[in-house]
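Bench log, entry 3. Co-assembly request; chain sequences pasted below exactly as received.
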Amino acid sequence: MTTPIKEPTPVPVGKVSTPVGARPRKPRKEERFAEGGGVLNAFSHGFLILWALMIVFPLLWVVLSSFKTDKQIGGSAWSWPSHWSFDAFSRAWDKGIGDFFVNTLVVLCGSVTLTMLFGSMAAYVLARYEFPGNRALYYIFVAGAMFPVYLALVPLFFMVNRMGLLNSYIGLILVYVAYSLPFTVFFLHSFFRTLPTAVHEAAVIDGCSHTRAFFQVMVPMAKPGLISVGIFNVLGQWNQYILPVTLMQQQKSGDPDRSMLAQGLVNLALQQGYSGDSPALFAGMTVAMVPVLVVYLSFQRQVQSGLTAGTLK
Amino acid sequence: MGSDFNRRDLIKRAVAVGLVAAPAAGFLSACASGGGDNESSAKGKKTKDNPFAVANGAGLDVVIFKGGYGDDYARAFEKLYEKKYKGKTSHLGTQDITGKLQPRFNTGSPPDVIDDSGAKQIKLDVLHKNGQLADLTPLLDAPYIDDPSKKVRDVLQPGTIETGSFDGKMYSLSYVYTVWGLWYSGKLFKDKGYTPPKTWSDFMALCKEIKKDGTAPFCHQGKYPYYINILVMDLIAKTGGLEYVKRIDSLDPTVWGEGAAKSSIEAVYELVDKGYLLPGTNGMTHIESQTAWNEYKAAFIPSGSWLENEQLKSTPQDFDMKFLPVPTLDGAKLPFEAIRAGAGEPFIVPEKAKNKAGGLEFLRIMLSKEASGKFAQAANSLTVLKDGVGSDVKLRPGTQSTVEVLKAAGTNTFNYNYPNTASEFDTAVQNASGELMAKRIKPAEWLKRVKAAAEKAKKG
Amino acid sequence: MRHRKYPFIAGFLFVPVVLYAVFVIWPYIQTFGYSLTDWSGQSQTMNFVGFDNYSKLFSDSVFKKALVHNMLILVFLPVITILLALFFAFMLNVGGRGRAGAVQGVRGAGIYKIVFFFPQVLSIAILTVLFQAVYRSDEGGLFNGVLVKLGLEDKQHPIEWLNSPDLVLWCIIGVLIWAGVGFYLVLFSAAMQSIPKEIYEAALLDGARRGQTFFRVTLPLLWDSVQTAWVYLAIAAMDVFALVATLTPGAYYGGGPDFHSEVMATYLMRNFLTYGKSGYACAMGVVILLLTLILSAITLRITRRERIEF
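Structure output for the full assembly:
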């Protein structure tokens, strides 16, 4: 809340936007003060709306395409669906979109949790304890964030195969965790450094073990940072494609299909290249898109507040 | 030896949508452990009707690449097998052969029959090197189901055995017989009174007329220059003759300084120069351009004979799809009827299959008139079985026209092998053709580039 | 607090380090090993060739082209994305009608923040199919369709976006920006909200224009977030594999027309899987790795600044 200083008109200030009796939409004299405010406002609205349209429009197009016919999709992108039926959706569902979704959820639940647990443990130790090799270890972790994943695919496949973990949730979870560690350690490391040391010291003096001090004192203090890095990880692992396509393939005819969502969608797209079912592909994409949007809508406050914490310090 | 057909799959499918193939097929099976001993199922009695001695009631494990031809046809074949041997078949249709089967080869428990095709095909030479492939010679010498007086080897299209052979022995049965060339709509031509051209000058004259009528004479799948190379390389082959094709395959750089290559590429460039291309075609995917062609926006399009099946849903009922061999230039060494044709879609029987006899028998069943006709109907493509489509089978117009064209061609068929053996060279030729079609380079530059690429590839 | 420190450290580090070593470090080391061989990728037989692959790499013109493209993306992607995101974030938080000198965001700021973030949750498969349609090379495309309808372009000569040597790389960068801005907008916006409003208002009272407040107040206080964004985007710029491989023309992993959109990752993949030059591809990978490391070090050094506490 601020106080108007040189302001002649008695208008309520701050976030309360219900001026008594006055019509709020009209430009007002105080605009002169914050010079250019009105112009800026129109200008910014213009740009924001334009960008928003650029995002909403293509997504709507995806949704509309799931109601079109193959021929319409192959033809102009500007056609309007001629009949409205949900056939394509049930076909997409038959092709396993639902299963892919569940697979992805199962893996992400495990992998994000473990990533956060192990990542924060490593980051914490590296950030707060002196020991020989600390710096070296930190840099080795961080360097991993710079490596292109596809370089390691072949040896990685052999490794997972030798462990007998191909097409298993556990295998993919462990690999996801390993490949998410660099980022996680990198950001949490800087975050743990900024936390005040006094609280932790007090806890230790009170006889808290290092482990308890971590879980009961440091983790709660680091919550904003953890949330933010967790969000990064959810997004990163959600969109992961190359790892599951290498590691999550049925090994026997009877093996369950444990495709991740991105993988499943690409397979649908592959079929579409073979005179398959384009509407079903778009329906699948819609099905894949909507729940994520819903989740984001419900958690966007946490996402946004969590993000502040995740910057380099 | 992969087939050209698979190569083309690789090109467009993997790239079109598959973001990346799983780690290279080959080296995985290279480590094939050979694994557990597989007790083969009990032997049946060897009879004239059952040359491989398949045990009654023996199950059959079939894995089919579910690509352009779907996998319904295979289910029909499995029914034929079940009827004969009362064994249960298990069926898996997939786009990802490598992903599904690599580990099974590694552990020594492969299925009994595999359609090893598509972008994620397991390389046949690797499987062969590791002793994973059953020798198909017994199949070739087995009696042909529809006429037991003949052997299977006598009823295959020319080139089929060679395509599937390593060191003189056949290890894979390439089942689909593909022809490459130009395609047009019979309806469009009838409505407008166009005559399918036989010579290049007739072709150009017709293009001029078509353009005047407001249709684009020619379109191609520009995002994948593989397709325009059908026209380019067919024209070169027909102008230069079979010997010329061999020299191209052997990466002889001097061919690119000679007349046949020069006149052919200049002829193709004429299409560009005279504005005969469909606007935007140079940037289109196969689906986009082929659908535009189905909408009569363009008259000709180059492709292989999978086209009809691929466009099934977008083709108007009365479109009347027709195949046209590439028209010939003056002084061409091969006649107009000559076409590029070859066997593709390799089927294999693993050496360590539990029911190896059943696998061989399955292939023999595939090479019967009944199965071949079913395939032609379900997948709108021909098989390598000579005269494999009975008169009772009603084909779609495009497939029907390839039957006629093949008859007319007789022994005048040719095929290129360089896409399988020199992929870097192939890529260079494709790039050059893409640039030519976009009018960014001239024929002279095209020849120079291709020649340089051949020299480079030759050096290795 | 010295007691039992080392067991604790070891206990906490054990699992993460083992996971990391087994699944990440060891495969990369093996990759380096392969880069010294003529491995074809088809079998486990190979010969040691020393640094041959590396010396060949330096005379490979396509690789150099790819390198340049990566560098272009590396410069333009972060700059444009961050500027746009900052601009939008500033609009959302400060662009509103100032009432009585109070600084506030535009109306509907919350909705914008949600909408702009959408692309971030889309799978790469969706992006590919979507932008294939957007950039389609005839009037059926979303872009060309609009241009033709507006009369800005001749139907007979549509812009072949992805098949144009001058445009194709920008088309790819465009997709990355489209997908990325929302995320960084939310990131910056959150950071801006943690800046006390009084700072702005004081600045405004001191006679600063709004534009000036951005450069004098907002930007310095957001520096941490900008730096974070930069690192993220730089890493994204080194790996644009999926988009290039699927959207651009050309045989085997795109990169066309005629290598005009080739990036190191696609060229590596083509060598690895198509040409059967896996050892060579591994050498390429090692070079990419080194470059990325050097670049990150430089980025961090340059952007390091004194932090402003508030």
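Residues 95 and 105 of chain C are 5 Å apart (CA to CA). Chain C has a mean pLDDT of 82.
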